[in-house]
Specification:
The protein is mainly α. Helices cover 43% and strands 0% of the residues. The chain has six helices and no strands. The radius of gyration is 17 Å and the shape is globular. The structure holds heme C. Heme C binds at residues 37-38, 40-42, 52-54, 56, 59, 64-67, 72-73, 75-76, 83, 92, 102-106, 109. InterPro entries: Cyt_c-like_dom, Cyt_c-like_dom_sf, Cyt_c_1A/1B.
Amino acid sequence: MHALARLALLSALISPALAVLPASAQDIAAGERSWNKCRACHQIGEGAKNLVGPQLNGLIGRHSGSVEGYSYSAANKSSGITWDEAVFAEYIKDPKAKIPGTKMIFPGIKNDKEILDLTAFLKQYDKDGKKL
Ligand code: HEC
């Protein structure tokens, strides 16, 4: 078999396996680096406050526009989204495409692995900002 064909076969075998692997410490560390892109506007963890954007504790499972005391755009508030991992991945790739009219000014993260790592980082925090 050609080296290229072998490589293609190998990656076809490996990528579905990667998709079901639980988050590793490396993923979370990489996700924390990615989180630096969010920190100008968002906080997470115990005592996290709303800044330019709402705090992001317990995000996965949360309903869009539901943080107390944060003044969302109408677009976000009425988007009817519940943030599961798939919807979050779609959103963070291109926030304005997923929620037209959102006031989150962020170009998006295009790399799927980076999104998975960032999700692993975010998922550590429950709704009170405690690490699970
Ligand atoms: C320049 C500021 C800014 C940056 C950078 C930013 N955000 Fe936001 N984000 C916002 C604002 C403002 C909103 C509120 C949007 C609205 O009401 O339309 C928001 C909303 C959100 C929401 C919806 C929350 C909810 O309760 O419905 C998520 C999820 C989110 N941001 C995740 C992220 C992540 C993850 C990053 C980093 C990769 C990021 N944001 C980077 C400003 C920002």
